[in-house]
Specification:
The chain is mainly beta. The chain has a domain of 136 residues.
Amino acid sequence: MLNAMGGVIVGGYLWGQLAMMPVLSAPPTETLLLTQSQPMLGQDTIPYPPVMRHGASPEGRYHLTLTLVEGADPPHTVASLFETLGDRCQQVWSRPLPHSYGPRLGLVNDSGTVVLLDEWINVASTRAVVVLGRDGDAIAEHSFDDIVAVTGETRAEVVEQAKQGFWLGGSPEMQNDGSYLAIPTAGGELTLNLATGAMGF
C-alpha cells in the first residue's frame, strides 16, 4: 500500500528474507514503514506482531528489522539496524525494546536515525514516540501525555480521532530530506525533529 509520499507500508513477514541479510526488494526511492498487518481497535484479543518486520531508509542505505522474541515472558521485540556497504549489509546495533510486544510503527532515515511510534497494544504509553540515534542510544522519548500537551487537545479527543493504534491519525511521512517526520494525530500534524527529538504541532 502506497502512502501519499510514495512510501510503502509493510506488514507481516520480511518477504522471506532473513534479519541478518536484508535485501533491497523495493525501489531505493521508496520509504518502507514497519507497521501492523491489520487494525486492532475493537478486537477482544491481542494478535502478536509478525515474527519479522523490515523497513529501509528512503535511499536504501539503512535497514531496520523488528524481530518478535517468541516464547518470551513478557513478549517483546528486538530492533536491529543494518547499513548497506556495497553488496553487503553490516549490523550497526541490536537491542531489545521495552515496548509491550513491540512498537506499532518503526522507520529509519538515511542518517540511521530510528523512530518508534506507539505500542503494539492500545495503551497510553510512556514510549509513544522514541527516537534513537545511529548508535542506538536514545535521542528523545515522549509519552502519550506529552503528545496530548503539544496538540492542545484532551486525552479523549486525541484517542477518538485515532485511525490506528491509540493516537495515530494516519501514516507518518518523512519531510525535508528525512530531517523531520510529519505524524497525523488529533486532526492535525505532529512534527518531529529527528536530530533533536523536539515535537511541534
